[in-house]
Amino acid sequence: MLRSTFFKAAAVGVAAIFALTACGSGSDASSADTIKVGALAVPAGDMLKHVAKELAPKDGLTLDYKEFSDYNTPNAALSDGDIDANLFQNTTFLETYNKAAGKDLVSVGKVYLPPMALYSNDIATLAELPEGASIAVPNDPTNEGRALLLLASKGLIEVKDNPITLKDITANPKNFKFTEIENASLPQALNDKDAAIVTLAFALPAGLSSDKQLVVEGEDSPFYNVLAVRAEMKDDPRVQKLLAILTSPDMKDYINTEFKGLVIPAS
Q: Which residues form the signal peptide (predicted)?
């Protein structure tokens, strides 16, 4: 009787071991097909949610989306390994972060252009922008330099090569009054400024529409947002699969339909 009980217990123990092993294998297989990606809510967050629901499952990929609310934390989270990739920045922003933080994040490819634009609540056309107009610009080096280049492209100011701050303005013939403001607060700055240069990630949630744009970047802009990863993950099959999905014809159709031309998919 004792011997029979022993064998029964042993059998249960072996079965339990096999069950745990099977569960562990299933978990490993699942994580091997999962990629955690960080982005701001709009437009990249909307894009990633669409990928997670409609496109990734068709390719056997599970996308775990993590939302961020500012430009400062997605790269830190990626560097720390909290996420596997992020989608919110252009290569200039990425290179600036790497240099400042001593990191080695890399781009695996362009995905979309979120055109930066000069917006105004009260002024209808660029020609109406008055002498001495007050203009708010982003206060981070990458987007501030980008904003200055946008104004320079229309002959409103002149700047040094590769401008970073207001100090790089070499000519301001209409004596515009510039104020540096944190990106997320730029839409609200339109309440007391004549105009503000706002990135699309904050313009869309604030309800800024194309009819408020006085100047906007075109398809020839070099500031396309990229899928970024840690250097050791650039050849990871999950990363390559996600990039293929993000640049697929299906994704381009979604971007064009969902954002009605305000977001430009990479060609």
A: 1-24
The domain locations on the chain are 35-114+222-265, 117-216
Instruction: Tell whether domain 35-114+222-265 is in CATH 3.40.190.10.
Output: yes
Structure confidence at residue 32 as a pLDDT band (50, 70, 90): confident
CATH architecture group of domain 117-216: 3-Layer(aba) Sandwich (3.40)
- Write down the mean pLDDT value for the chain: 90
Q: Do domains 35-114+222-265 and 117-216 have the same CATH topology?
A: yes
pTM of the model as a whole? 0.84
